[in-house]
Amino acid sequence: MLRVTQCGPIAVFRMGKHIAGNKRWVLYETHSFQLDDTMIDTGTISVEDEWKSKLNGYRCSAIVNTHHHEDHIGNNRLFQEKFGVPVFAHPDALSFMENPERIRLQLYRKVVWGRPAASHGTPIGNEISTARHTLQVIHTPGHSQDHICLYEPMNGWLFSGDIFCGKRLVYLRSDEDFWLTLESLKNLASLDIKTIFCGLKGVVENGGGSLKSKIQHMEELKDKTLELQQKGLPPHKIRRRLLGYEDGMFYLSNGHFSKQNVVNSILGIKRSINP
Ligand SMILES: [Zn+2]
């Protein structure tokens, strides 16, 4: 599934894989955006054929990747072959784009998104200009080390990749860092943000307020976790108390995506345990 809608001058591409051929069910959708002739992320290779059918008459002069994950760089090569455009990203993302075999894909990620084809990246600077807008590049590690956001101050637009993903935090990947994510979100909260363009949620109005809600939620979760640790509760009991039992996300991802990862990251424990 690949659908395009418009939010002011920004094209919003919503995409994902249909479940068992049912057109109403989409597995973990993702979003890319187009501002002027610049694409911000290229989505998942699982919808490459749908992209191909859209590209005739299409204009693209540059791509920016918010980070190296397969649901954000999936169609880089298609765009590069069609338009010969540069792909800008954080320097740490480039080797994954050149050699996607380096991305350690668990089975669920192979099924949902698929492994991207190789593309050639260029290190991004402190800002990037489209035909009519200048975007500030902000390093926002936490979801991944190479994660960046793009901020357009004149209109208060934040292209947030996967660092926001909604007002609540229930799951983390085992390679995500709670503390770095919180710090990155706090840095973003100092900006005047009207609209968030999020990799997971798409267009989020009241961006600044939504960001502050997420920070408050994470602060409370952190404080309660540390308080329960002080009282002597083991990590899996803290998780049960604050977030409940693991659910389908844990089992589908074989523990890569879990509630326990949230608690463990707060406590500085690396691997998830006790589903
Ligand atoms: Zn990601």
Describe this entry's structure for a reader.
It is built from 10 helices and 15 strands. It is of the alpha/beta class and 275 residues long. The protein folds into 2 domains: 1-129, Metallo-beta-lactamase, Chain A, CATH 3.60.15.10; 133-275, Ribonuclease Z/Hydroxyacylglutathione hydrolase-like (Metallo-beta-lactamase, Chain A). It has a 7-stranded mixed sheet. A hairpin with a 4-residue loop joins strand 10 (148-152) and strand 11. It is globular, with a radius of gyration of 19 Å. The model has no long low-confidence stretch (mean pLDDT 93). Zinc ion binds next to loops.
Features:
six-stranded mixed beta sheet, Metallo-beta-lactamase, Chain A, seven-stranded mixed beta sheet, 2 domains, alpha/beta, binds zinc ion, 10 helices, 275 residues
In CATH, what is the homologous superfamily of the largest domain? Ribonuclease Z/Hydroxyacylglutathione hydrolase-like
- Taking all Cα atoms into account, the compactness measure Rg is 19 Å
CATH class of the largest domain: Alpha Beta
Order of helices and strands: EEEEHEHHEHHEEEEEEHEEHHHEH
